[in-house]
Write a structure and sequence with these properties.
By secondary structure, the protein is of the alpha/beta class. It has ten helices and 22 strands. Helix 8 (about 250-260) links the parallel strand 15 (about 240-245) and strand 16. The protein has helices at about 30-35, 75-85, 100-115, 150-160, 175-185, 200-205, 230-235, 250-260, 310-320, 325-340, and strands at about 1-10, 15-25, 30, 40-45, 50-55, 55-60, 65, 65-70, 90, 95, 125, 165-170, 190, 210, 240-245, 265-270, 280-285, 290-295, 295-300, 360, 370-375, 375-380. It has two domains: about 1-55 and about 355-380, Urease, subunit C, domain 1 (Roll), CATH 2.30.40; about 55-340, TIM Barrel, CATH 3.20.20. Helix 9 (about 310-320) packs antiparallel against helix 10. The longest helix is centred in the first third of the chain and has 17 residues, at about 100-115. Bound molecules: zinc ion (ZN). Zinc ion binds near residues 95, 128, 272 and 307.
Length: about 375
């Protein structure tokens, strides 16, 4: 199968858009020369001025459509994949919660089986807890908080076939600095659910941590005499920072300021969605705790925000339409930087020849018109 997508404004890795034709041969993007050498039935798509962007990568979300990563079943992963790809979120590394090791092992095994049988969407897992601080646990379940434990991480990597791409750590906890030095050799170490001050976070970043999990949420704030982990992350030029852009977790002015402070090369948009994403209002569960969902908010019974009920494509729309982030910067943060953060950028995350043809067409209003998953049209 060969597809030409003509007359689109095509996203470039630097964050700009160029009018050009995109060439797809079977499951990959190819050069014009390779395309015309290739065999197969041809389809010509007129993008008619639409934005043509790479499929997004959500590195940090817990669930959707009534399912959660921690259900630990193939059924859950398959339902999550199905929902996400139809939104244009074509690669995912769903996040576990602070849970007992037996539960995490079951999630690891189910993810491994799903990834082997269900194509190229499930690219890994994200371990949010249990290596966090009780003081900043947020919606994580305090009953299962555990000090950083390399052996536990190894057991989980073994069960999953090395699918854990990132692990969250509170750097002030017992043994955290040693853990960060070792773990960062093989996975991304991300800081959050932490009461760390500037100095402790700075040391963690020097020891190999390279990312901030949902910046601002689950950590001390950024104030003029106590810059905390946010100031340490801004100072450390290779550190990327996640932002939940559901319009609930972070004020638009803070989103704009953070893009300026870090630059759009270092921002990662995430949804941090829980199982109610894509579902009606009602009572749900997250990490063994009751969550009440109403409109665009999900909260624990005490009012603590408990993940979002959005998806990453909607976060891009929110960032652009309600927060004033340029579309090129938002797509960079949700496709390029996120793919780099979980080490899949050589195959996904931008529209250059050689990568898998995960492509989304958005109209002027940023509504999804078409989605291609590895060269197959699944929406539009
Ligand atoms: Zn989360």
């Amino acid at each position: 199968m060969k597809i030409q997508i003509r007359n689109g404004r095509v996203f470039e890795e630097q964050g700009c858009f160029t009018e050009k034709t995109l060439y797809i041969l079977d499951e990959k993007l190819v050069t014009e020369a390779e395309y015309f050498k290739g065999e197969g039935r041809e389809e010509i798509v007129d993008a008619n001025g639409s934005y043509v962007i790479p499929g997004l990568t959500d590195v940090h979300f817990h669930g959707c459509m009534g399912y959660d990563c921690c259900d630990g079943t193939r059924e859950a992963f398959e339902a999550m994949i199905d929902y996400e790809v139809h939104q244009g979120v074509t690669t995912i590394t769903p996040a576990t919660m602070t849970m007992p090791e037996e539960v995490l092992l079951q999630v690891a095994r189910a993810a491994r089986e799903t990834a082997a049988s269900k194509g190229r969407v499930l690219q890994g897992l994200y371990m949010e807890g249990p290596f966090i601080s009780m003081a900043k646990k947020g919606a994580q379940n305090g009953a299962y908080v555990h000090k950083p434990d390399l052996e536990m991480l190894k057991r989980l990597q073994e069960a999953s076939g090395n699918m854990f791409r990132a692990v969250v750590v509170a750097p002030e906890t017992e043994g955290a600095m040693e853990f960060i030095k070792e773990a960062s050799r093989s996975v991304t170490v991300s800081l959050a659910h932490t009461a760390a001050d500037y100095e402790t976070a700075r040391q963690a970043l020097e020891n190999g941590a390279s990312q901030m999990t949902h910046l601002y949420n689950g950590m001390n704030g950024f104030t003029h005499r106590a810059p905390g982990p946010i100031g340490a992350a801004a100072d450390h030029e290779s550190c990327r920072a996640e932002l939940i852009c559901d319009g609930q977790h972070i004020h638009p002015a803070v989103v704009r300021t953070t893009f300026r402070m870090f630059g759009d090369d270092r921002m990662i948009l995430i949804s941090d969605s829980m199982r109610a994403a894509g579902m009606p209002d009602g009572d749900y569960e997250l990490g063994g705790q009751k969550v009440i969902v109403k409109g665009t908010q999900a909260v624990l019974e005490d009012g603590t925000l408990a993940g979002s009920v959005t998806n990453l494509m909607d976060c891009v729309r929110t960032a652009v339409k309600k927060m004033g982030i340029p579309l090129g910067s938002a797509v960079k943060a949700a496709a390029v930087n996120s793919a780099k953060a979980v080490h899949i950028f050589d195959e996904f995350g931008s529209l250059v020849p050689g990568k898998y043809a995960n492509v989304v067409l958005l109209n002027e209003n940023l509504d999804t018109e078409q989605v291609y998953l590895c060269g197959q049209r699944i929406v539009g």
